[in-house]
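Researcher: Sequence recovery benchmark, item below. Answer with residues only.
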């Protein structure tokens, strides 16, 4: 005779491979998709009566590690987008419940106990983690993805789960509150789905049906939480566990599989530098990237007009600014800085770290600014992995310490061309993708910030060796303008200034003011 708790767990565990198979991006990730499918087979072996003990514990341990691997892949997909979307982050974090369920599966398969739970109660807890946790939160995330509404549901859902979980340990009042919370949550999902006319989309009716199923099943759970025992544990496992797992989790995922709702923002489409350092960066590391026959380089780009497109009009930029980007090495630079209140202590720590790295040498709050050397040199494209790469190395003239050792390239996505700037780090690269924008009076802005409807690649990313690039909560805008001291009638005599603003989590933390004066000296 079938054990309803074993069946309930397997029904809930079906959502693990299904979540990857219905998602187009997850299917393109062979490690995640294949591991998730293998996990279900391993879970079935772990709950088999013939394998309980050491062998079953091994299967359960593999299952748990698999959850970590697939969850990390999902997290990478979420963080590699130019915009961090709540729905995609929640889809990745939902794998925490798979890992937690894997722990309880291990407790069951190894014939041990945890927090006073063992045997069938441990397996029932594993099923709860998968059905009420992973599958239900995945559906909530997909509703937010498909409708672009109801982000607050992503906050409420884990809280409700925690209340029910606490109630299962004996705190009956919390279990009752959590059960009512689930009913309210599913009704709220219905309201969000209907408000977005989800039923009119392919698979939408299936999704709405899946949102209806658990309401009836939760009435039984509420009766159980109140102390009613009209059904025994086995009957509850059939009527509440299996029905919810299949009718809500599996059916809902199948509905979204037909709908194929895409994330609002696709993963970043830029090529990223592969020029990872091993230890210190600085000018010596940049010199090691030179090709056998270096080409003469004088600017950050050979032709500024290449950036025209996507609403940016290169011809409207003052010709003195255009000349700076095409002949950067001909200019002398100096800089002043101002750390903002609340960030000065962190600035001092970062200054000490950057001195050791020979990279990103932002001046500390107590560090005097001044003149810097400026050198442009060629980089081997094969070593970097991008095209037409050149390095811009700036060092403080007074100390010789490196401010920036940056590798410049560019890439286009659709009709927008971005300045693609890599900062090599030990076994990593930080990359700033800047979009060019026109400003009044022929000024130029290069920025990672975006308008609400802008889904471009711009942003600051960190890529660790072998992993996807992750969008960092950092933004920057560089505004370049001519100065009043310039001889407006003669391009060659013009001076420029640039204001470089940097934000962390949307808060300004550092402002650099540059002054660039043409010296007439050709670059390296």
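Model:
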């Amino acid at each position: 005779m079938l054990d309803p708790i074993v069946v309930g767990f397997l029904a809930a565990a079906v959502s693990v491979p299904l979540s990857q198979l219905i998602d187009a991006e997850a299917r393109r990730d062979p490690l995640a998709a294949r591991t998730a499918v293998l996990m279900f087979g391993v879970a079935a072996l772990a709950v088999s009566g013939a394998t309980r003990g050491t062998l079953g514990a091994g299967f359960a341990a593999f299952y748990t590690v698999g959850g970590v691997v697939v969850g990390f892949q999902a997290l990478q997909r979420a963080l590699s987008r130019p915009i961090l979307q709540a729905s995609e982050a929640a889809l990745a974090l939902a794998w925490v419940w798979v890992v937690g369920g894997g722990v309880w599966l291990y407790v069951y398969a190894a014939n041990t106990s945890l927090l006073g739970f063992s045997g069938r109660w441990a397996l029932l807890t594993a099923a709860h983690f998968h059905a009420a946790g992973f599958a239900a939160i995945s559906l909530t995330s997909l509703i937010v993805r498909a409708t672009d509404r109801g982000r607050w549901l992503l906050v409420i859902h884990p809280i409700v789960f925690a209340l029910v979980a606490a109630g299962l340990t004996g705190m009956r009042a919390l279990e009752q509150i959590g059960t009512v919370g689930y009913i309210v949550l599913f009704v709220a999902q219905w309201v969000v789905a209907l408000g977005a006319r989800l039923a009119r989309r392919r698979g939408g009716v299936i999704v709405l049906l899946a949102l209806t199923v658990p309401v009836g099943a939760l009435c039984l759970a509420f009766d159980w939480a109140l102390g009613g025992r009209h059904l025994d544990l086995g009957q509850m496992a059939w009527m509440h566990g299996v029905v919810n797992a299949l009718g809500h989790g599996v059916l809902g995922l199948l509905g979204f599989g037909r709908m194929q709702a895409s994330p609002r923002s696709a993963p970043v489409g830029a090529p990223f530098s592969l020029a990872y350092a091993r230890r210190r960066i600085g000018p010596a590391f940049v010199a090691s990237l030179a090709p056998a026959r270096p080409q003469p380089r004088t600017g950050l780009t050979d032709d500024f007009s290449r950036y025209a497109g996507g609403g940016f009009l290169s011809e409207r930029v003052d010709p003195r600014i255009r000349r700076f980007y095409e002949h950067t090495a001909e200019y002398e630079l100096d800089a002043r800085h101002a750390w903002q209140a609340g960030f000065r202590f962190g600035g001092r720590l970062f200054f000490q770290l950057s001195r050791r790295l020979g990279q990103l040498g932002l001046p500390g709050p107590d560090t005097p600014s001044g003149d810097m050397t400026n050198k442009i040199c060629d980089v081997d494209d094969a070593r970097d992995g991008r095209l037409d790469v050149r390095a811009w190395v700036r060092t403080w003239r007074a100390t010789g310490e490196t401010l920036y050792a940056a590798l410049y390239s560019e890439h286009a996505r659709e009709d927008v061309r971005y300045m693609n700037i890599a900062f090599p780090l030990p076994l990593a690269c930080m990359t700033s993708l800047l979009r060019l924008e026109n400003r009044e009076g022929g000024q130029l802005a290069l920025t990672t910030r975006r308008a609400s409807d802008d889904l471009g690649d711009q942003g600051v990313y960190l890529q660790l060796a072998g992993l996807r690039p992750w969008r960092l909560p950092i933004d920057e805008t560089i505004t370049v303008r001519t100065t009043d001291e310039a001889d407006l009638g003669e391009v060659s005599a013009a001076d420029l200034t640039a204001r470089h603003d940097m934000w962390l989590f949307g808060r300004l933390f550092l402002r650099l003011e540059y002054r660039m004066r043409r010296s007439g000296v050709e670059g390296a």
